[in-house]
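help with these tokens:
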Amino acid sequence: MIVDMPNTTSSKIGKKLQDLRESGGVVALGRVLTLLIETDFAHIEEAVKAANSASRLHPSRIILLADDDEPHGAASYLDAEIRVGGDAGASEVVILKAHGAAASNPESLVMGLLLPDAPVVAWWPSSCDPNPSQSAIGKIATRRIVDSAEQADAPAFLAEFAKHYRPGDGDMAWTRITLWRAQIAALFDQHLNRKVSAIEVIGSDLSPSAELLSNWLELRLGVAVKIEHKLDGENVEGIAGVRIHFTDGQLEIIRHGEVAEIDQTGAPHSSVLLPRRSNQDCLVEDMRFLGEDEVFGEVLTKGHGR
């Protein structure tokens, strides 16, 4: 069910949620957290789809705040939409569309809608401030998730994000390489007696995930990592592979489509499924841990600028 509330206020929205619960039990209880999403009008449906999928594992109240990017001197009003039941997955969704000056104080728009005594996770699926912990929404949240790959200048954003990192900050660009890190760690167990001489990550020069993977490898193995931007003479998107050179051999993982081909010294050729992760998959993982991701913090702050 979708309830439209044009030209409304936060207090009226909260009252409507209560009415829906009392009149027909439409909105179930048992939410474990509040997920705050801040984005623009163009990314509303994409963000809601990902959040709804994630809510099936992490039941939550989803509050999406969208700004139409109009000057704050323009007409000021707030439109809202409440989605419950089949239109909201395992959650309840409140979409706030702020026009003009109504968007100038995000905290006041969402505070009255937060679940009481529940953790708050903030997610910016599109462009955002590289200092999320000091933003209006970020100050409310204990966990803050950005997506450096969605920024206009991803490398510059990652550099600024590293300067302003605070415990609780996260980046979907990091979550996207979870499968890469797990696969590399599992394969490397077979080569613990070998000395690493060089490492190459094959990835786009615009990919923050390639940068973060390189940082992680360099910090863990203590060897300088080189990022190659081409595979077989062609520019790559995202991450295409990793080569770890030993003094007496090599470990190579090259991804074609969703399958990675593995060649390593002392073992036959093999392959493994290594698909690109969706925003839904990344959000589910990021919402699983509400504290500090210490490994990410170390990789971001110590590895950047290497």
About this structure: The radius of gyration is 22 Å. Residues 2-166 form one domain.
